[in-house]
Fold:
Amino acid sequence: MFLQRYYLECLSQASYMIADEESRVAAVIDPRRDVEIYLEDAREHGFEIKHVMLTHFHADFVAGHIELRDQIGAQIYLGARAEAEFPFTPLGDGSRIEMGQVRLEAIETPGHTPEAITLLVTDLKTDPKHPYAMFTGDTLFLGDVGRPDLLASVGHTETELAEMLYDSLHRKLAALPGQTLVYPGHGAGSMCGKALSDEVVSTLEEQRRYNYALQAMS
Structure:
């Protein structure tokens, strides 16, 4: 399995490419608008980008899903609760995308936004029973979680979203295997959270220990 992280320092924003090195099929998660960086890597490795996913609608940058669709015909995927003015494939709990020996599976994790999803990636060749990593978007950061107070202007109160976020964290993500790697959508400096780490990756077990939002609470 191929996994590459791309980091845009000015926005503290991370995007990712995952590919199956046998079928050469690739997916891009939360791409920025200047998509040539993904296209160059795909050409270099002989991958075909067939899938592009947004973990949620981004308010702090313009994403590149439309560019990837228009330039190479990639299929766009959003959370099942999303409403968009362009065609997309909805991903609900348990929705899967199979790419040869690589599987992507969605978990609906509302809280930062109602339509937010987390994407699990499993290397079926190495360990088909356990996810290798999770791409958490703005739901779970390293050391923090996504803010639930940004959508009042469109009718979602911070209390409503905080309740959703609690369920997403404690009833869904926290129940996954502790060795699962956590790749968030932002690092330190983003306004989407208040105490983000500048680390690239963590494990879920580390976040259970040190992330305040995953501690036992009512």
In short: The longest helix spans residues 158-172. The CA atoms of residues 17 and 42 lie 9 Å apart. The chain has one domain: 2-214.
